[in-house]
Amino acid sequence: MVRYSQDRNKVALIHESGTYGITSGATGTGVWIGEITEHSADDSENLIADRFLGANTRSVAEWAGGPRDINGTITFHPTDMRLLFWAIGSVNEAVGTGTARIHYANQINTNVWQNPFCSGTGQINAPMSFALEDSKTSAGSLFTRTIKGCVLDNVTLTASQGEKVGIEANYIAQNLAFSGGTSTLTVTVPTTTPYLWSDCSLTLSGITLATAKEVSIAINQNIEGPHYLNGSRDISAPILGNRDNTLSVTMDLDEQAGNTIYSLYKNNASFNSTFDLDADSTTGSQHTILFMSGCKVNKMEVPSATEGVVESTIEIVTPTIIGSSIDIISAYNPW
Predict the structure, then answer these.
(1) CB 20: neighbour CB atoms within 10 A?
(2) Residue 216: strand, helix, or coil
């Protein structure tokens, strides 16, 4: 009996061609996502149980094919911000120093195409989509799934003290194809080190939090996958819902930062925030900055206990996020 083990798992990203659910180059070199620690895909057939008179059974008489739904989660340590920037919105590139490239991410609304490489008329304003190949091999036995039409729904970037920075990316997808054949993609592990907690700093209203212990930035697109009456059990191109951005902070309370933030909280005041991830080996080689404007503290807990340093947890709503990132990736987009 052949069993599949963790060391033979592989997940690679495939660019789509400009038509939702159609891959651009299904073989060859895959796109490195990061140091993936887990990928799960929930593929549900949602069978419809038919019970009707005259079937002469207490059990289900027939099963009909229901709306197919695919939801997945990729957890990884990032060396670049491709998926996070796609979650923010529209991405464009500029030339940096030497081999470095600068990537910019800006929020967009539904009156703007996120996929400008989809030229022509009648294009839908769907978010960026991609495909994933998840393959397992063991002693010549192969198990390969290709998940097409993946669209990012909820993406969270987390930095915790003493750890690598992590991203958890939840997506919905259109269809999943299974093959017992070999993996069609190869991926090259880059020499770039993932971002670390020690690369990170958070500034709220002009004050750098020197005692922050964990910072999370969550981008929720509230994606809807419509099942139209179009002859298919699969979803059509997903629809962007209301955007929700949340900045969560855990910190040891200090006088300057604590008093300022609590005053902003109780006065319902707006302020700007910056999360800086600077992993430059040389100036301008690996550096990401996330700018958040219109921030307001929604919740701030400041407990009193009989021992230890006072630890405060803060929840901040951030209506606008834009990003700038420098790395060796020539383009986050497939064009």
Answers:
(1) 20
(2) strand
Instruction: Please tell me whether residue 247 adopts helix, strand or coil conformation.
Output: strand
Tokens for 89, please give them. 């919105």
Angle at 59 between CA 53 and CA 60, to 5 degrees: 70
Q: Please report, for the chain, the start and end positions of each structural domain, with discontinuous segments joined by +.
A: 6-327
In angstroms, rounded to a whole number, what is the distance separating the alpha carbons of residues 249 and 300? 9
**The pTM is what?**
0.91
Whether 120 has a pLDDT exceeding 60, the answer reads no
Q: State residue 13 phi and psi, 5-degree precision.
A: -95, 145
Kindly state the DSSP code that residue 7 receives in the 8-state scheme.
G
Beta strand 271-278 with 287-301: parallel, antiparallel or unpaired? antiparallel
pLDDT digits (tens, 9 = 90+) for 273-317: 999 999 988 887 899 999 999 999 999 999 888 888 899 999 999
* Residue among 149, 136, 146, 126 at smallest CA distance from 235: 149
Question: What gap in Å lies between CA 261 and CA 250, rounded to an integer?
Answer: 13
Residues contacting 44, CB < 8 A, separation 6+? 68, 69, 70
CB atoms within 10 A of CB 107: 16
- Indicate the pLDDT class of residue 213, thresholds 50, 70 and 90: very high
Q: Is the pLDDT of residue 26 over 50?
A: no
